[in-house]
Specification:
single chain; alpha/beta; six-stranded mixed beta sheet; two-stranded antiparallel ribbon; 16 helices
């Protein structure tokens, strides 16, 4: 466990931000013109400004759960609905109130692009499920995992189309607000998608995969914004998935419970004591508890609370089991079906085109001339 705790949290591939703890009183900067400040004094001034903004008794939304680490570091977990304007406001209010040292979001490096895209581009992207996306998902995750990812994207696209709202708005708000807080780092706290999907596929039998895919393919229930807000106690996307995978407890374990463990681990990594900046190397080091804001789907909050004080082994949930016999059979079946459909499509298209060409007057005339030119026996 000690070896694992040394793994650094993932950081978004964005502008680098320096993290500094700010839970103790910092010496005030000596009076004088701002342009005459030394680097050390400027650093101290920024730190003091952050401390002034940080509320000792923050007024937090009801969707926030406060957790305390053994060293006194505090973690404020904001439970969100992924398609909710209220969740965006909750995230912004929490970050402004507590002025965190680290913000952790329920994203991995495979989904970090949504932080940089504007709302209209994301809305358009979320609605479109193209052959190119399918090919990319298959190349990245394998045939079955890629197909499962595309089916889940279809669920997200269905919600997007119903609500006219792009997913991940709370994460983009968290990213923007974190950039306004002095010395605040931004971490990606979710398990990589390929690991999650490969473990999920490995947990299902062939017929379970077929049944789940069938349910996802024919998802069409209408969704309103009121439905989203009612799902504040359980994230809408995950609630819809839970309804469809209720009979598959192993799938729920890999998609939800294991990610609860991973998110808890990353939040604990972010909540380590921080070293205050020093004016010189001769000054003694001083470490203070940190303040962290975590932004996760509401469905993960109970699991994070449950796992907060337990020993965690993420190596176990990061391994991808070898494909089973049913997995190999299902992959071969999918490939055979794909090749068969492609062959039939080419055959049908070829016949259709040939019939249309032969029906043209020019083609009829040419055939008549050819048959007339043949010598009769």
């Amino acid at each position: 466990m000690e070896g694992e705790e040394k793994q650094p949290p993932q950081e978004a591939d964005t502008e680098p931000v320096v993290t500094v703890g700010a839970s103790e009183v910092v010496p005030r900067v000596l009076s004088g013109e701002s342009q005459n400040l030394s680097d050390a004094d400027a650093l101290t001034l920024l730190l003091e400004m952050k401390l002034r903004r940080r509320r000792e008794r923050p007024s937090l939304p009801r969707t926030v759960t406060e957790l305390v680490a053994e060293d006194g570091s505090r973690v404020y977990v904001v439970g969100t609905a992924h398609f909710s304007d209220d969740s965006k406001k909750d995230v912004v209010k929490t970050i402004r109130e507590v002025q965190p040292d680290v913000v952790v979001v329920e994203l991995c490096q495979y989904r970090v692009s949504m932080l940089k895209m504007d709302e209209s581009a994301l809305l358009r992207e979320a609605k479109e499920i193209s052959l190119e996306k399918l090919q990319q998902a298959v190349r990245q995750n394998g045939v079955m995992s890629g197909l499962m990812q595309m089916l889940l994207l279809k669920v997200s696209a269905h919600i997007t189309e119903q609500l006219g709202m792009a997913p991940g708005g709370e994460f983009r708000e968290a990213f923007k607000e974190a950039s306004k807080v002095p010395f605040c780092k931004f971490h990606l706290g979710d398990r990589p998608i390929p690991v999650t999907f490969k473990r999920a596929i490995a947990a299902l039998s062939f017929w379970q995969k077929v049944k789940l895919a069938w349910g996802l393919c024919f998802l069409s229930d209408p969704i309103s914004k009121d439905d989203v807000e009612r799902c504040k106690q359980k994230d809408l996307l995950e609630q819809m998935m839970a309804e469809m995978i209720g009979e598959f407890p192993d799938l729920h374990r890999t998609i939800v419970s294991e990610r609860d463990v991973y998110l808890t681990y990353m939040l604990r990594q972010a909540a380590r004591r921080l070293e205050l900046p020093r004016a010189s190397d001769a000054e003694p080091r001083k470490c203070v508890p940190s303040v962290v804001v975590g932004v996760v789907g509401m469905g993960h909050v109970p699991g994070i609370e449950k796992n907060w004080t337990t020993d965690l082994n993420i190596q176990e949930i990061m391994t991808v089991p070898p494909p089973s016999i049913s997995g190999r059979v299902s992959r071969l079946a999918v490939k055979a079906a794909f090749v068969g459909l492609l062959g039939y499509g080419l055959y049908w298209t070829g016949r259709r085109i040939t019939s249309l060409v032969l029906a043209l007057p020019v083609a009829q005339y040419c055939l008549h001339r050819v048959s007339s030119a043949r010598p009769h026996k």
